[in-house]
Amino acid sequence: MSTDKLIIFDTTLRDGEQSPGASMTRDEKLRIARQLERLKVDVIEAGFAASSNGDFECVQAIARAIKDSTVCSLARTNDRDITRAAEALKDAGRARIHLFIATSPLHMEKKLRMTPEQVLEQSRLSTRFARNLAEDIEFSAEDGYRSDPDFLCRVVEAAIEEGATTINIPDTVGYAIPELYGSFIKNLRERVPNSDKAVWSVHCHNDLGMAVANSLAGVKIGGARQVECTINGLGERAGNCSLEEVVMAVKTRRDYFGLEVGIDAKHLLAASRMVSQTTGFVVQPNKAVVGANAFAHASGIHQDGVLKARDTYEIMRAEDVGWSTNKIVLGKLSGRNAFKQRLQELGVELESEGEINAAFARFKELADRKSEIFDEDILALVSDESMHG
Ligand code: KIV
Ligand code: ZN
């Protein structure tokens, strides 16, 4: 099924929580789930119901509280896991069971200790079992990107035959390269019979820092129409594909992707802060979209540019993703124009251009000694005492 809509599947509460030190309480998860619903995330993966009673209760509570997004639980390909997932999701408005089994030679042999034929059979039977309990079934081939494409085609074909509605091909260990991953997905979609009966999904880890690029290539080259991601890219090891980055890439470059994303981006910053505060994982200042410096301008040339026209150095609006405005950081690189603008914002009216020049000279002297100049510093610089001796 190839639609013009890109489905955003958030797994902050499941794969994100697998990040060491990021575990969340039931109430914290509920709060984040509500924020995800506010964001208009299409699918919220609430947890892994069979993994513990605590996780079961989280999935159940989220399934009961969330009305506008589909709520999903992960499950291994066995009857107990699938039954637990279905029970936890019983009260959801829209429920999805997400099955996964590893399909790479390494994982099958060393981790599962199963033959490929056993994995194929288990994929088929578990999808059939799950399909009797829910209509919306996602099937994930764990370590899919490192799997043999011929074998993967057979597994995916079986899952679709048994009624899987979404097929997810994870790059579980973040090994992919954008063009190669995109072509890998495209090739599978072209080879699997009835591939258009399912939505194809990408799920990329960030071990080489390419989770977002790989996901976007899976969409653009591969034709995937679901991206799995987390707020702030939270997740095991180097994390998952970052929701805010992938969403803003598709929105900002609509000319290139030509896809609709339902996300209400003005809630992105609040979501990022909530996840950061809940987990204690600090967002790096230069993080795209939600980092403290994402819309900050420090150099004089840039400041002059954005004061004249914001799109000189801003490809998206800070306000569109939840910031109150962009930020002109005054420091040693700042120009007279930015300084003058800040004086106006602070309600300071100097009598002549000469006074402005004098204040600006003192500002530059101070900026050589101090990396960031705050409003209080400027007010001190232009106080009567400073100006007139
Ligand atoms: O990374 C992965 O393969 C996963 C699956 C369980 C979807 O998280
Ligand atoms: Zn994952």
Automatic annotation (TrEMBL):
Signal peptide: none annotated. The keyword Ribonucleoprotein does not apply. Pathway: Amino-acid biosynthesis; L-leucine biosynthesis; L-leucine from 3-methyl-2-oxobutanoate: step 1/4. It catalyses: 3-methyl-2-oxobutanoate + acetyl-CoA + H2O = (2S)-2-isopropylmalate + CoA + H(+). Keywords: Acyltransferase, Amino-acid biosynthesis, Branched-chain amino acid biosynthesis, Cytoplasm, Leucine biosynthesis, Manganese, Metal-binding, Transferase. Mn(2+) binds at D15, H203, H205, N240. GO terms for biological process: L-leucine biosynthetic process. One of its GO terms (molecular function) is manganese ion binding. Its EC number is 2.3.3.13. GO terms for cellular component: cytosol. Its cofactor is Mn(2+). It is an enzyme of class 2 (transferase). Residues 6-269 form the Pyruvate carboxyltransferase domain. It comes from the Bacteria. Homodimer. Catalyzes the condensation of the acetyl group of acetyl-CoA with 3-methyl-2-oxobutanoate (2-ketoisovalerate) to form 3-carboxy-3-hydroxy-4-methylpentanoate (2-isopropylmalate). Belongs to the alpha-IPM synthase/homocitrate synthase family. LeuA type 1 subfamily. This is 2-isopropylmalate synthase. It comes from Alicycliphilus denitrificans (strain DSM 14773 / CIP 107495 / K601).
